[in-house]
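Task: encode each sequence below as structure tokens.

Item 1
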Amino acid sequence: MQRRAVFSLVNVAVAAVALVVLFAFPRYAGYAVYAFLGWFVVSIAVIGLARATPPVASSSAAPSMPGGRPLPAGGAQRPGGTASPPPIAFCVYCAGDLPPEARRCPACGHAVLGLT
């Protein structure tokens, strides 16, 4: 089971215990609330540290996409690569097709957005 799933289940259990203490033992409600908040902060910090340190992969492994599938051939780049995004092929105002180097939409006359 993943670490995040375990911490989620433990967080639910700690919240349930805190609620029981709040209603069954009101004298200790302050301690229960602060214990719950403390545990919550610690679990968020542990999950954050786990995300900050990615697993180390072998340098001889082929590059892959997030699902573990290999990158397709033909120049596809990983996120953060140097390839520029493809130009917008339709007008965002009327959804008409645009010629490759159009400055204005031939259908509605709006200026083409330069989102590259």
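Item 2
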Amino acid sequence: MRPARYAIIPSNGRECLRQCVDAILSQVDHVTIVRTENVTLGWEQYITDRSGVLTVVEQGINISRWWNDGLEFVQFFQHEFREDRSEKFDVAILNDDTIVPEGWFDAVAGQMRDKRAVGASSGSPIGMPVLHTRPGPRPLDQRMQGFAFIVAGETGIRADEQFAWYCGDDDLEWRLSASGGVVVIPGFPVQHLHPNAQVTPEIHELIAKDMQSFVDKWGTRPW
């Protein structure tokens, strides 16, 4: 029996969220929306009808905290409500402006489990899976795609919340690489509709701060 499958999608209710949910919903057992602004946006019923789960977090920009809120909720759900109480479970973390192709979860999670890795994404440019088992800089096109990736939920991995907007995915990838491995598979391209569309002057400041925090932590930039 395959591990249970979940998706976590932080969102402030952009229209693209509907496309994101529609693309992933049939591929997982449960979708968790982490609402990043505590306001009424008009999409709650749409999401509730399709996922059954809606979580609300405090206002403030911190994508690592949003991911962690989702991971905490999914872990609680897995342990308390799943009938099989399986130890293993797979969790996709998606930007709300991503559209995964059909079969994406099967392919990415399947390779992760086959290679006994604990993190995975699509996006390898070389026609074969790339397995990272050590932290460290790597070519941009061989990194775990931070806008759409899967982690082995039973590891209990959490994002480092000092990275509010930038480098949190790189930090997570490096730690996953060191604790079991990260595989990046070829094919199954994910549409990323609006890269950097939400970058504001405040976020520009966070980007610079986060990069310095990454260098302080690891002694080098991620690329």
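Check on item 2: Residues 6 and 163 are 23 Å apart (CA to CA). The chain has six helices and ten strands.
End of task.
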